[in-house]
Write a structure and sequence with these properties.
The chain is an all-alpha fold and about 220 residues long. The chain has one domain: Up-down Bundle (Methane Monooxygenase Hydroxylase, Chain G, domain 1), CATH 1.20.58. It has six helices and no strands. α2 packs antiparallel against α3 and α3 runs antiparallel to α6.
Length: about 220
Amino acid sequence: MREAYHLELGQLATKLAGMCSKVAEAMELATRALLEANLSIAEQVISGDEAIDDARSECEEQAYALLALQAPVATDLRTVLAVIHAAESLERMGDLALHVAKVARRRHPAPVLPEQVHGYFAEMGRIAVTLARKAEEVIESKDVAAARAIEDADDEMDDLHRHLFTLIMNKEWEHGVASAVDVTLLGRFYERYADHAVSVAKRVVFVVTGRMPGTTSGDDL
């Protein structure tokens, strides 16, 4: 019985890692759609979001079943709770990729981004996908040091996000209010995507150590 139970816990981690892969691919494609004004890629992201939603539902259903039937404690309980919270963060990451794709579709065939900020979003997209891939790795490895390093990588995203505002607010911005609104919203989508990747990594730290990063104490549940 316990062997089957721990097999199910392993399956949960595998499903969660699979969600990371899905949301990484979604943001990679959404960024391409944005940078290339590519409608077919944008539509691919939009139609694929349902699979991410379904994956979250599957993770949550299995996690709640384990809570109800097995009454886990200590590390096992932390694992189940972490899956529930991380699946929510990953589903939101998928939604943020969806938002990027919808902006690209709404503006098609016109490009969304002025050339002035094109490079910023290419880099933000790269960082976002890297963070999701790293989250996938730490879920599989439970490497606390690697999980904590994700927060450091998020600082790069925050720096880019802040710099976008200096460009938009500069008196030399010549692309109009509508473009400034698009850039502001898109920057926020990428910044929040990275924040959720950090949240997933923190859940891994919680599973292994019993403490959420940023807290000074913690006991096994």
